[in-house]
Amino acid sequence: MRTRRHFMSQSAAAASALAFPLVGGAQPKTIKIGVLHPVTGALAYSGQQCREGALMAIEDINKAGGIKAMGGAKLEALLGDAQSQPQAGAAEVEKMNEAGVSAVVGAFASAICLATTQTAAKYGLPHIVDIGVADQIVERGLKNTFRFGPGYRKCAEVAVANLHALNTAAGKPAKTVMIVHEESLFGSGTAALLSRELPGYGYDVKEVIKHANPTRDFNNIVLRMKAVNPDIVIPANYYNEYALLVRTMQQQKVTPKAIYSVLGGAASSYKFVKEFPDAANGIIDCNHWFNPKDKRSTALKKRVEAKGLFFSYEIFNTYTAMMLLADALERAKSGDRAAIIDALEKSTFADHFMPYGPTKFVNGQNTGAQPLMTQVVKNDIKVIVPRDYRETEPIFPLKA
Fold first, then answer.
1. CA 9, CA 397: separation in Å to the nearest integer?
2. pLDDT tens digits for 115-133?
3. Are 144 and 232 members of one domain?
C-alpha cells in the first residue's frame, strides 16, 4: 500500500506542478522532430554524417533560444535508423508518427526518401528531404514533402551545360563518354538523364555500366573502360563504390581527359581527398556544395573538423534542412503538422549559407536550389563554376 500511496502522492505533486507552473514561468514544451537516416548498412557513413548535421543544427537552434514564437520551445530529436533499406525507413516513420513527432527530416538516399515521404503523407506529417535527389520524390503530388536541395534533373542539366562550356573553351578535345553508375534509383536515374542530355551537345555516349551496391571489385569494369577508351568518365555512385572505382582506374593507369562526376559520392569529399589524394586530384564534380564566401559555412566546417569529422555535403545539407524547419516552426507558431506544412509552402527562408537565395517551393521543390561545380586542386576542393562562387580557374582537360 505504501508504494501505491507514495505513487499517488507523487502523481498529485506532478499534477499540481503542471497546473500551477513555478514562479518565473512554465518551462516551454519541446517539439519532437524525427531525424531519420541510414546509420547502419551499406550507406551508414553518409547516414551518420546526415544525423550529425541534424543534431548540430538542433543544438544551435536550442542554444539560440529555441522556437521564439512558441515561448522558446526546444527541439527534441527522435532518432531513427533506416538501415539502408526503404522498408526499414517506412517502418521508422510509422514509429515516429506514433511518438507524436511534428515533422521528419531525412532520409538521405532517394529510394529511402521515396518510401519515407509516402508513409509520412498518410499522416499529414511534414517531411523535409535533406539529400534524396530523385525527382519522383517531389513529383507525386505529396503535400507533406519539401526538398530544400536540387534534384538530379537540375544537377544533370547544370553538369552537361558546364561540361560543354569547359570543353568548348579548351577547343573540344573531349568527344566520347562512359557512364558508370550504381543500381538504385539515384544512380540509374542520374545515368538515364545524362544519356539523354549528352548527345544533344554532340557527345557520343559509348557505354553505360551499372553496378551493384555494394561492389567490392571494379577490375572488370575498368578493363572494359580501357577497351572503350572514353575521353570522359562520368561516375554516379555512393562513397565506397566511387572511391574504389577511381582507385582501380589509377591502379590500372586509366587516365581519361576528365573524370567528371555528377553527384559523385566521393568526388567532392574531404574524406576522399585526404585518404586518396592522388586518385582524387583533378576530379570535377557537380554536386551539393556550400557558399564558400559565407563565413558561417567556414565556421561550421571548423566545428565539424574539431569533432574529428569531415565537412561533407551530408552534414551541411541536413544542417540547413533542419534550419529550414526551424524557420517554418517560427512562422507556424505551433507544432501542428498542417500549420507547419502551410508555413513551408509559403517559405522564403534565406538565412542560410547555401548558394540558393530565398527559398520558394513549387510542388515541394525549392526552385532556387542549385548545385555548384567543384574541382580537387592541390589536395583541396575548390568551386570552379558558377563565377559568383568561383575560388579557382578550372583545369580541363586533365590530360592533353
1. 77
2. 999 999 999 999 999 999 9
3. no
In this structure, the answer to whether residues 159 and 278 fall within a common structural domain is: yes
Res. 267: pLDDT tops 90: no
Question: In 206-312, which ranges are continuous DSSP H helix?
Answer: 219-228, 239-251, 270-275, 277-280, 295-306
Spatial distance between the Cα atoms of 136 and 278, rounded to a whole number of angstroms? 37
Beta strand residue intervals within the chain, DSSP E:
30-37, 74-81, 103-106, 127-129, 145-147, 176-182, 204-211, 232-236, 258-262, 284-287, 361-362, 365-366, 372-377, 380-385
User: Does residue 134 sit in helix, strand or coil?
Assistant: coil
Residues 172 and 221 in one domain: yes
Residue in the block written with cell 526551424: 326
The CA-atom distances, in angstroms, between 300 and each of 199, 319, 383 are 40, 10, 18
d(CA 81, CA 51): 10
pLDDT for 266 equals 86
275 Cβ neighbours under 8 A, 6+ residues apart: 243
Q: Please report whether residue 177 resides in a domain.
A: yes
Residue 94 lies in a domain: yes
Of 370 and 213, more confident: 370
In angstroms, rounded to a whole number, what is the distance separating the alpha carbons of residues 44 and 48? 6
Domain that holds residue 272: 153-287+373-389
Answer whether residue 215 is part of any domain.
Answer: yes
At 237, the pLDDT band (50, 70, 90 cuts) reads: very high
Instruction: Note the pLDDT tens digit of each residue in 18-52.
Output: 443 444 455 568 999 999 999 999 999 999 999 99
- Are residues 161 and 272 both part of a single domain? yes
pLDDT: is 28 or 356 the higher one? 356
Q: Give the total number of structural domains in the chain.
A: 2
In a domain, 276, yes or no: yes
Mean pLDDT of the chain: 93
Residue 398: exposed, middle, or buried by beta-carbon count in 10 A (0-12, 13-18, 19+)? middle
pLDDT at 23: 41
Q: Are residues 205 and 269 in the same domain?
A: yes
Residue 108, sorted as left (phi over 0), alpha (psi -120 to 50) or beta, turns out to be: left
How far is the C-alpha of 297 from the C-alpha of 353, rounded, in Å? Answer: 6
CA 134 – CA 114 distance, rounded (Å): 8
* Grid-cell match 538504385, residue found: 184
Question: Are residues 312 and 269 part of one domain?
Answer: no
Share of the chain above pLDDT 90, in %: 90
DSSP designation for 73: B
Whole-structure pTM value: 0.91
